[in-house]
Amino acid sequence: MASAVVLLSVAYVVVAALLLNLNLKTSHAPRVKVAAIVVTTCFYMVTWFGFQAMSGWASTQPLPEQFRLLWVSIEERKKEDRNPGYIYYWVRALDAADLPVGPPRAHRVEWSEAAAETAEAAASAIEEGQELNGTLSRNLMTPSEEGDAVSGYAGEKSVTGASDEEVNIRFNRAPPRHLPAKPLPG
Fold first, then answer.
1. pLDDT for the residue 164
2. How far apart are CA 158 and CA 62, in angstroms?
3. Of 23, 36, 52, 183, whose Cβ has the fewest other Cβ atoms within 10 Å?
4. DSSP string, the chain
């Protein structure tokens, strides 16, 4: 991944050098030269923000509907710098058989007290060696009294964009893994 970022940086340096060379050697109007420089600079910024996911930055995209929670990191609110605080979830999506698929992905959710409490409970459960599955629901869920629920719910903004409703994240213990039967010898 680092090589892709280095290669992209080298490519932009080459483009900038070519642009400078063309601007020095051509007889275009100064406003055409300035426009070319501004457009190129804008492309640098667009590319930088577009490729943040390649550099390992947490995604602000919604969490998958069902996922395996690998780890949680909580960055609390700071009133002095008006930082809203964030909760970072490191997850893998689940397939139809509730097995993790694809590479792990970091997701960022805005901090709230309920979300932080749920994330702390989930982190404690992971530290104790439990595997947790997460599920998104657009319905209001209350904390469960069942033994399999690790925590209540944590809020995330609606993924539909239709309203500012909360999307609830619920963590449950993952079902035990079932290994396939070994063939009998002979």
1. 46
2. 8
3. 183
4. -HHHHHHHHHHHHHHHHHHHHHHHH----HHHHHHHHHHHHHHHHHHHHHTGGGGTPPB-SPPPSEEEEEEEEEE--BTTTTB--EEEEEEEEE-TTS-EEEEEEEEEEE--HHHHHHHHHHHHHHHTT--EEEEEESS--PPP-STTB----EEEE-SSSSS-PEEEEEEEEPPPP-PPPPPPP-
**Beta carbons of 79 and 128 less than 8 angstroms apart:** no
pLDDT at 73: 93
Give residue 162's pLDDT: 39
| Terminal alpha carbon distance of the chain | 48
CA 29 to chain CA centroid, Å, is 45
What residue has token string 């340096």?
13
Of 111, 74, 110, give the one whose Cα is nearest residue 90.
Answer: 74
Please tell me the distance from the alpha carbon of residue 49 to that of residue 60, in angstroms, as a whole number: 12
